[in-house]
Design brief:
Blueprint lengths: L13 H13 L4 H20 L7 H21 L11
Helix pairs in contact: 2-3
């Protein structure tokens, strides 16, 4: 969605900037779809750091699959409705 608009995260803002930009544009209409993203991101991050301790299980991943699919489905519906970014000089 953000790429369609010519936007991209920087190292300084990283993933948080992407999340905030998406939320600013899509909440309230897609609040229920986007709200699980922050939790999934935190869970994935903790899994990266605690993988040896078994922080994530296959059950955790399966439980989040419907949320991830909802986000992908929403993006598939929204992006075609957005005009493509064209830089002007």
């Amino acid at each position: 969605m953000l790429q369609q608009q010519g936007l991209r995260p920087t190292q300084a803002g990283g993933n948080e900037a992407v999340i905030q930009a998406a939320e600013a544009q899509l909440i309230p209409p897609l609040r229920d779809v986007l709200e699980p993203f922050r939790l999934m991101r935190r869970t994935r991050g903790s899994g990266d750091y605690l993988a040896a301790a078994g922080a994530l299980t296959s059950d955790d991943v399966r439980a989040d699959l419907p949320f991830a699919a909802g986000i992908v489905d929403a993006a598939a519906r929204i992006v075609p409705q957005m005009s493509a970014f064209t830089p002007t000089r």
